[in-house]
Amino acid sequence: MAEAVLYNIASEIINKLGSLALVETGRWRNLEVDLESLKNAVSTIQAVLLDADRKFSLNQQVEVWLRGLKEAIYDADDLLDDFATDGLSGQAKSEDKNSAKEVAATLQQLGIVEYQ
To answer: Whole-number mean pLDDT of the chain?
Structure first.
């Protein structure tokens, strides 16, 4: 059940990352590479979530992995909302680049963890 919610949020993040407004904001802030890295990490995790539901009940490690993933996915979604808000107001925050890198790294790390 939780996996379906995370899968849907991941889909929303991927859609946001593909939006023209966010692409332009990323260019303006020199974040194209970081946002693309974030998109790749979320796409990888989304693929893994398709199998997580079956394994969730069989393996405690999957439950722990999903908890960490849930936090990271929500962080990514919040980060993109902040970008959109900042883009509309024309304000750039210096910590945006660091936040994007941190969220992408966390998602990439969670995406490569084996939970078999």
So the answer is: 75
Dihedral angle sign, alpha carbons of residues 8, 77, 113, 105 = positive
With 0.85 as the threshold, say if the pTM is over it.
Answer: no
pLDDT given at position 90:
58
Provide φ and ψ at 15, rounded to 5°.
-65, -45
Contact 17, 39 (CB under 8 A): yes
How high is the mean pLDDT in each 10-residue block of the chain (116 residues)? 76 86 78 84 80 68 78 85 69 65 76 50
Closest CA to 105 of 35, 38, 39: 38
